[in-house]
Amino acid sequence: MINRALWIIMLVAGLTAPFFAYPIFVMDLLCFALFACAFNLLLGYVGLLSFGHAAFFGGAAYITGHAIKVWGFPPLVGIVTGAAFAMVLGAAFGYLAIRRQGIYFAMITLALAQIIYFMALQLPFTGGENGLQGIPRGNLLGFIDLNDSLTMYYFVFAIFLTGFCIIHRTIHSPFGEVLQAIRENEARALSLGYDVDRFKLQAFVISATMAGLAGATKAVVFQFAALTSAHWQTSGEVILMTLVGGLGTVFGPVVGALIVGALSHELGSFGSWVQVILGTIFVVCVLTFRRGIVGELERLVRK
Amino acid sequence: MAQALLGLNVGVFYAMLSLGLAVIFGLLNIINFAHGAMYMLGAFVALIGYTMLDDWFGISLQIGFWASLIVVPAFVGLLGIVIERTMLKRLYELDHIYGLLLTFGITLILQGLFSNYFNVSGTPYPGQPEILAGVLNLGFMYFPTYRLFAIVFSLVVCFATWYVIEHTRLGSRLRAGVENSPLTQAFGLNVPLMITLTFGFGCALAGLAGVLAAPIYSVSPLMGADLIIVVFAVVVIGGMGSIMGAILSGLALGMVEGLTKVIYPPAASTVIFFLMVLVLLFRPAGLFGKEK
Asked: Which residue in B has a C-alpha nearest to residue A288's C-alpha?
């Protein structure tokens, strides 16, 4: 019941948002919401803490930016190229990382992501510290002008919904059931005859692709691929969003992304205090509030 | 050879940090993400102790370099104990990733606090003692005296830690606590106290590394942030199983990085991560780790 209510709220809010808020800001939130949903697919439903998801988010942003700006790809093809890059990268990272479990998995994904960060800093096409600038938005399907911010907004909202539905579908499929079985008890899933490593790798690739889709879209929104998108603190931020909203809930990451995003935006003028405040929220969440907002709501409704 | 020695200089910091992580991991099963922040904190407390205390309190008060080697690790270790007692303790029953997440939050807080008061571009530590200034003639090269001191001092600390854990009564008790905590407790040993002190000690090691690094690198709020991820890779390469593994792989990888800087500079910041990939492909448990 609560899920149906959240679906309706999300659709209505998403469709009307650009009339109440600054569209670029809402688009930014939507990109982070999709990113958080992708991350939650792994941590919330398979129990894998990837601390390197910024590599997919940021990496796809650079590839999309380059494809559109230098190769002259149309925006949609550019975004798909970025997501495909994240998919390949996800397959490689996942293959390496699933060899170890738990906190090792987190450390390995973090270290692998750092390779991408240094590449984004050093490769000739990335613009180093300044990032990749001046990505044209172009025309969607050849005739819809994306430079109009309202048009661009609905394009981004459509991408968000597509990604969200793919993740939703993945979770509520037999495949998703197996993933949750792995999260609950890996040894049991293994003894039931499931090829646990293959399932984990597939989930990792889907998650990486969706994170890449979010990053690629963000690059087109801002016409800019930034170095911070690939930094490990962005990986941390997406974990925070998921944790605040509710781990292992469908809508939790969306709610979390809205709250953390709005908070960072509101507190922007306080400089480094934002980091202190986010850190404090992190600590409080881990210590007392592990279900997150949507998780707590669901528990209340169930009572 | 000269580059290898300079690399060893970085290596001793890797070794001290991964040693601290290994000691904490051994007893608490938690990866202390705040380890890099503790290292940064160590450097800053040394800097503040040397340059700012008299301003703050209006009396002539200065903590010199030698005193810092004692006072700063004690301070950082104490902070570690407070963190363990008040926060980490509540998470032992849960999945280990919560410990990682909590310490990540603490990292953000510490980094943010120091970024507010100090320039992110870094401040030099002026307190390097006279006696360690200048360079030494080693026969084949001239080497800064201070760096040589830092190498020798860190090596002594690392091997002393290894000796205590592997070859003393105290160490055998610690290892028993890791192996089987309820049984060890039944023998009348206070395991929770051991855990608290071990966490404090691990943090103190990071703080000490920070003091030693302060005169070499500039002291900045972000000095620990990227270092900690390299240390994670070092830990994966070495394997968490052994204390010696942490020390040796730390030293070796520091030298590898130093040599890469000479042969192909752009790869210097990533060579350790690529080595990690290679090790994972062939020995997923790490070079010194045991397969579970």
From this structure: B90
